[in-house]
Specification:
2 copies of one chain form a homodimer. By secondary structure, the first copy, chain A, is of the alpha/beta class. The first copy, chain A, folds into 2 domains: about 130 residues, Leucine Dehydrogenase, chain A, domain 1 (Rossmann fold), CATH 3.40.50; about 140 residues, Rossmann fold, CATH 3.40.50. Chain A contains 10 helices and 12 strands. In chain A, helix 1 links the parallel strand 1 and strand 2. In chain A, helix 4 packs across helix 5.
Chain lengths: ~280, ~280
Amino acid sequence: MHINGQTRVFMILGDPVAQVLAPGLFNHLFAEHAVNAVLVPAQVAPRDVMAFARQALRAGNIDGLWLTIPHKTAILPLLDRVDRLGRVAEAVNAVRRNADGTLEGALFDGIGFIKSLDHFGVAMQRADALVVGVGGAGVAIAASLAERGVARLALFDLDGSRCEAIGARLRAAWPGVDVVVAESSAAAGFDLLVNASPLGLQAGDPLPFDPKQVTAGATVVDILMKDQPTALLRACAARGVKAFPGHEMMLQQAPDYLAFFGLHDVARAVAEDSSALRRMLTPR
Amino acid sequence: MHINGQTRVFMILGDPVAQVLAPGLFNHLFAEHAVNAVLVPAQVAPRDVMAFARQALRAGNIDGLWLTIPHKTAILPLLDRVDRLGRVAEAVNAVRRNADGTLEGALFDGIGFIKSLDHFGVAMQRADALVVGVGGAGVAIAASLAERGVARLALFDLDGSRCEAIGARLRAAWPGVDVVVAESSAAAGFDLLVNASPLGLQAGDPLPFDPKQVTAGATVVDILMKDQPTALLRACAARGVKAFPGHEMMLQQAPDYLAFFGLHDVARAVAEDSSALRRMLTPR
């Protein structure tokens, strides 16, 4: 990777930002495909994110921003256009400056999740799905599952009123899907169960749901990236429940980011051969 | 060079910015010395530079900015502190955020020039010097020559009133130096002659002064970095006049930037062994 005056610059805004994996991944891809671009981290406080993003995107060679926690929603008022998933989830992962100067945002978390299930061969259409935790990632996943055409989508979150509000947004956007707000994370009867809650980040956390209750043949996904395999994945493995980790979701959305930023050749190459990304992301 | 979430970020602001050499140089040094930092270009329009710099320097991991044309002077109102050379020249090359949150600027162009003459073994104290062109670099060089203790400092610029104003600032700061505003760039009688004007950037430009008039034993420096050797350097060589190119000036100021940004170990290492930088900067 050789950065010079002609390098196109992308930034990933987070607070904190030290934990982000995207710079390592995308800079590797830029170098591998001889794209003169770089993705650098920027630790931006919530009160600064609008002004920072506005100014950064006025720079001629800063072509776009990645947004991570806690900025995925806060950035929305700055944007001229937002894709449908981003509008429903009220969150974006990325913002670009279009040729006409307008700012456009898109949400890829849910797309990455769907593609990861496709990769694992898990059927979603007409499925009964449970999403535990409707923070940023959970809403993105729920919206993408609705778009993919699950039959029933149950949401559970300790914040019941947030869960109700998100349920209402999903119902409005996809009236054909039976969106329900669950009163508990009781696992029985679902074909697909997703942990999108923080349960598992802290030692001693309870499991987000009980693997013993999971219906035979169902699929579990734990999107937590820390300390693989997670307690939930280990508990599922111990009971013979099919369960997948979250890193594939990140890997699968890489081509979408690249295409969104106009790097179509690299996007295509990565979609066709993700082995380099897989080596970088797969837990050892 | 491996950029991750912990990488400290520096930006060089210019308009245009595609021509800047600093990212190539400093990123090479960061990689060589295992400093997890990166310098990326940002093409920022003059009307945006204050707001861009203010926001960028509020990011927790953006530790400083390099300023290049046309931003070296425009940034001054943002700064809490400016070093003496920067105040006289009304320009800075770099801005850092101090631990207490204050913004501090410094000017290195002139320091690099002085160090380059030291490197070439050219005496400056009590010299008669002519600086042609009092744009940003010319003023920086003139101020540093005054600080170094030249006896007489003649300034020439096509913009006579700017030249007078700068002469007055230099006289006020260094009353012991005989600062004169020359009516022409007549070269006779000087020990040291510096082209800091743009003459030589365009094909067909006249020479900034006539090498035939240069006093025997005098030294000429042409700070233009484009198309080496410049027409002036070639004309001097043809007449046996000792003449040096400008790249050494850039090389010599690298340790000052590094030290200014707190990277003292790398600054020391580069000051002791500049061979890597020299290979990158020396015209082939």
